[in-house]
Amino acid sequence: MTLLSLADIHAAARRLDDVTVRTPLLPCPWAGDAARSLLLKPENLQVTGSFKLRGAYNRLASLSAEERRRGVVAQSSGNHGKALAYAGRLLGVEVTVVVPGTAAQVKVDAIRHQGATVREVPAAELATTTRMLAEEYGYVVVPPFDDLGIIAGQGTVGSEIFEQTARLGVVPDTVVVPVSGGGLISGVAAALKQLLPGIRVVGVEPELAADARESLHSGHRVSWPTRLTGRTIADGMRSSSVGTIPFAHIQEYVDDIVTVSEDEIRDTVAVLARESHIVVEPSGAVATAAYLHRGDDLPAGKLYVCVVSGGNIDSGGLPHAVHCRPPAAVLPEPARRTMALEMRDRCERCERPLLIEAPSARICSYECTFCVSCSDAMQDTCPNCGGELVARPRRTPSATAEPTNGPPGR
Q: What phi and psi, each to the nearest 5 degrees, are found at residue 98?
């Protein structure tokens, strides 16, 4: 398989000039000590809120005139679709985006705001619906990660890190990058390993969606079902598997992939807001979470660069990500029963007491509960853990001391 060249990445950088933000490297004195220091590459500062604009614009700018006339279609959990919609508006290309029903509403609304057509389907039907629309209407399919043009655009993150650290007169020992479908880490690793052969590049993903780590360690692509990857709070990292092209780059250039817990992700969202004054979505926080919480899993070194991949989080999502507890399904049974007692008395989203002021609230299959006002504003999937939301009779805070049974089928 043909891998990305530096020439491909440099060509992408020329196309992106004056379109994307050359995001800075932010020093983090709060995260350093005598042994090591941290720089952040905050891609949440891009105009569309994530690194995805780099790949999306590069891919659309490479289309022929005939392909632009046909329009494009893509599947996306949100950020790729938003970036594609924005790039399509700049270049005059019609864009259709197929999103899962579990996508964050703030991302779906942003895609529509940019003028793209949105089709919402169950997560398991994303690929088939995208293919069907392409066949029916003649759209060009623009994958979120399994495409060399997309990867070349994301690779400009890596070339910028090289150029920026060189101007600072430093050489990073390790660059830490989020992994979902693999487009970002493929481009970053391809750029950095060709520019700095001695550098280490490490990927990070949630423990609840660790298909990429398993793939790298086993030597072949592994797929996790969406019912498993959908458990993580990091909604941009619920891909079932890395792409074929990204996996070839990961095998060639990536040193390791490590995982972080849901609590570590939440904690890092809060830390980045408090200490670096940046708003980061859970998916964007995983690389920094590895530096803060899994330092022993990373290669030894003095200077680390962590890529913050995005910041598209809704207005209620930041406090929810910071304060909510892990899904009960990932806890041992005694802790699960205790948490069920505690959390059924308060809304998981706004934390107000669940009073008997309406006939019912909703609860997900992993015991996350929501008050009526919050559940009415949500879709049918829990924004905390991805579980299905079902109706449940309301209890007062002083009600029974024993936990009730879970939802049907539990």
A: -100, 120
